[in-house]
Specification:
InterPro entries: Znf_CHCC
Number of helices: 0
Distance between the termini: 35 Å
Oligomer: single chain
Pfam families: zf-CHCC
Shape: globular
Strand order of the largest sheet: 1-5-4
């Protein structure tokens, strides 16, 4: 699986964040892993190396 060079920006509707996402093609799937993006605003998948980043202004939590 190829690593994305640029982080994928995610919004509130993408939370809780998991990789692979629902938009990932079937041929590119790996076991689903939930990623904690709340504390740093960024997360990286341990399986495929895809980086995710919260869109500007998105608030996580209560």
């Amino acid at each position: 699986m190829a690593k994305n060079m640029n982080p994928i920006e995610v919004g509130a509707s993408d939370l809780p964040l998991h990789c692979p996402t629902n938009q990932t093609p079937t041929w590119n799937l790996h076991p689903k892993v939930f990623l904690d993006i709340a504390h740093t605003g960024e997360a990286k998948c341990p399986y495929c190396g895809t980086s995710y980043r919260l869109k500007a202004g998105v608030k996580v939590g209560h």
